[in-house]
Amino acid sequence: MITEVRVKGILNPVRQPDDWFGLKYNMNLYRGCQHHCIYCDSRSACYQLDNFDREVVVKVNAVEVLADHLPRKRVVGTIGTGSMNDPYMPVEKRYNLTGRALQVIANNHFPVHVLTKSDLVLRDIDTLEEISRVFATVSFTITAGDDDLGRKVEPGAPAVSRRFAAMRKLAERGISTGVLLMPVLPFIEDTRENITRIVELAADNGAGYILPAFGMTLRDRQRYYYYRQLDRQFPGTKEKYIRQFGANYFAQARQAGELHAYLTDLCEDAGISLEVPKFIPQEAVEEELQIRMF
Ligand code: SF4
Predict the structure, then answer these.
(1) What are the tens digits of pLDDT across the range 250-262?
(2) Is any atom of ligand 1 closer than 6 Å to the C-beta of 86?
(3) Is 84 near ligand 1, meaning CB less than 6 Å away?
(4) How far is the CA of 32 from the centre of ligand 1 (A)?
(5) Which domains does the chain have, with CATH numbers?
(6) Burial of 117 (0-12, 13-18, 19+ CB in 10 A)
């Protein structure tokens, strides 16, 4: 079900220092998500998205609001393209909110961080190239090294191979891109084989970084949904979770420390960073240069 709404604001300031992405603002053009990842935390009761898998709310006037508000922002900082939804889920083909919002961002010379699981991002490659002159990076969430496993855990998202192909095209155009390797699902994705495959594909397709998280969160109705999907797709795995994690909020991947060290070695060999690059304001660059000169 698609519901259209009108909004008064669209840019939310990120108040906590954001170490992962360096975001200053976040922008949710949609509510709800059509990618239906079995692990998605947005199903948790605290977010109050009761129809998360059944309804997408489209903020139809969001681009006009952004065009009005962005020129008045005094602080230039990185805009994130959303949380708890994918800015390039299928409905974006029809509404083009993300594409048009990126054009507004380009016109106003703001930096952007795009987080997606979709190769639809290539539709906006020219705009991203333009924003890159200030700063742009595109992160693809990839938790599975092959299409079969990817389809099981992210059934509504484009195949993993399509995400890597999109990554390559972005990298070929000089646009920063990389992988968010998160969550690494315990008993399903926490193997050296899976990690090796993802790093190899990332290296082959121009990734500049891989940011990992070895484990996942589990709570209330998200846990309930996830366990039902485990029974359907990975029989016997739910019982392992119950034994291992009980009612814990965080479910850590098996041998998380070893896997992290293993990933670090692989990335070092492949010349891939373990950090997402961040926008550095021009004033900070100039200040640093002056300090070095004197
Ligand atoms: S793409 Fe992100 S927001 Fe959408 S279902 Fe998957 S994890 Fe949730």
Answers:
(1) 999 999 999 999 9
(2) yes
(3) yes
(4) 9
(5) 2-282 (3.80.30.30)
(6) buried
